[in-house]
Amino acid sequence: MVVCWLLGLLGLLWLLGLLGLLWLLGLLGLLWLLGVLGLLRCLGLLGLLWLLGLLGLLRCLGLLGLLWLLGLLGLLRCLGLLGLLRCLRRGIRIHLLERVRGVVDWHRKFRLHLQGLAIVLALSQWVLWPYAIAVASGDVF
């Protein structure tokens, strides 16, 4: 009998807990529903603001696009002038480089001639020096 009484008490506590849980879930569900409705209302306002912002952005982008197009046209015109100046500068630079290359080539050739002359003089010193000594001593004639 005590066991039945304890089981009844536990069952009652369980039933009260279940009812309390359901009540709490109902309360949470109501709060959730209010939150969802508020969120939808907020999203509606946000959506309206987003739509207005998007329309304003499109209008702004239209103005920006016009400015960008004008800037692009001005840039292309400026690049045309800059390209002309760049071509002129490149032509002058190529002309100067050719002059410098000519001087460098001349210097290289001159240096090679000097090196050849130095080699000839060194060889002639080995060949002609004994002959010059022989001529000076009178052994050749």
TrEMBL record:
Q: Does the keyword Transmembrane helix apply?
A: yes
What keywords would UniProt list here?
Membrane, Transmembrane, Transmembrane helix
**Is Transmembrane tagged as a keyword?**
yes
Q: Provide the protein name.
A: Uncharacterized protein
- Species this chain originates from: Vreelandella rituensis
User: Which residue windows are transmembrane per the record?
Assistant: 6-25, 32-55, 61-85, 116-136
